[in-house]
Specification:
The protein is of the alpha+beta class and about 210 residues long. The protein is built from five helices and eight strands; from the N terminus they run αβαββααβαββββ. It is about 25% helix and about 30% strand. It has a six-stranded antiparallel barrel. The radius of gyration is 17 Å and the shape is globular.
């Protein structure tokens, strides 16, 4: 059985290039945690939630491999952690789950986690759509003076793309718990209304 690796199969969705691209993401399964405060590891709730999200994603990976309840299974590399950061101080942590997984796998993982923090107990399994977003890769902290913002703004203006909601998403292609902050590769995504999706001069990923 071939192992599904999103880094190889979904390269356009997780674009490592140096120019912006568009992602159109339909309804999928996710681990979800909603919190408030700084979306950084200096925020103890955010850190506890991130630890739990990574752990439960791997637990589900292991549980799915041996579950008798799933109609089918394919070995896979767990998806990366991402966070949607709203301007009002709210944030949502997300880790995509394969379509064959089920909420019961998260329940099993949480029941086996006897040292679960308050944040870990609030991790939920949801189906949702991220929608349409423009994205660009950067490395290091995503600060206000990071050039990624100007590049994305110029790209959006050139292609008549308008923000649909405030805030942005950060997709961490490296584990933020074990990788130096300066080395973490992040896809910065901004929700947009892209009117032109026909013959374009930029990559489009649909999933």
């Amino acid at each position: 059985m071939d192992r599904f690796d999103y880094r190889e199969v979904e390269q356009t969705e997780y674009n490592l290039g140096d120019t912006p691209s568009l992602v159109i993401l339909t309804t999928r399964n996710y681990l979800v945690f909603n919190g408030a405060g700084p979306a950084t590891l200096t925020n103890s709730e955010f850190k506890d939630a991130a630890i739990a999200m990574y752990r439960y994603a791997e637990d589900i990976h292991q549980l799915a491999a041996h579950s008798q309840a799933l109609s089918w299974y394919r070995d896979y590399v767990p998806y990366p952690l991402s966070v949607y950061i709203a301007p009002n101080g709210q944030y949502t942590l997300l880790i995509k789950q394969p379509n064959f997984t089920e909420p019961e796998l998260l329940t099993q993982a949480q029941q086996a986690d006897h040292d679960a923090t308050g944040a870990a107990k609030q991790v939920a399994y949801r189906r949702l759509a991220e929608g349409t977003e423009v994205q660009l890769l950067t490395q290091g902290p995503v600060t206000a003076d990071n050039p990624v913002w100007d590049t994305l703004a110029t790209f959006m203006a050139a292609h008549d793309m308008k923000r649909t909601i405030e805030g942005h998403r950060e997709v961490y292609l490296d584990n933020i718990l074990t990788t130096s902050a300066e080395q973490v590769r992040t896809l910065v995504r901004i929700p947009v209304n892209a009117t032109d999706q026909g013959d374009t001069d930029y990559p489009i990923a649909r999933n």
